[in-house]
Amino acid sequence: VNGLMTLGFAGARQQTELCNESLMLEKLPACGKSFEEMMKKVDSKKWCNLTEFIMYYDNFTQCTEREANNASCFWPNPLAEGFITGIHKQFFSNCTSEKVHWEDPPDEILITLILIPVMLTCAMITLVVWCSKRSDIL
Description:
Blueprint: H1 2-15, H2 21-39, H3 50-70, H4 78-92, H5 107-133
Helix pairs in contact: 2-3, 2-4
């Protein structure tokens, strides 16, 4: 059985092709060109709003995946990622995520938020101690 399994794995290994990186790099720019043509339909002020071009981006991703697979390459791979990163820099370099600036609440609110759980904890401890000393009545 081990011999048959080894033979099966060896056969599977022989059937896999090596990644043709040059073919993939030759075909990927067509995906970028197609994406560029589709993005011309979108106002450049809306390029940071994903809902405006999500279908175009989906087509672009599927195209890069298809071309990588046609060249017997896995996807994503470092070369495809480099190409996709270039497209991102071309179209989305001005899209920055706004960071939320967190501030502490005013002191009155902060003190209240701290004291309420402390007081409840003290009240519960007092209740437990009182009930345990009065066990003869309860």
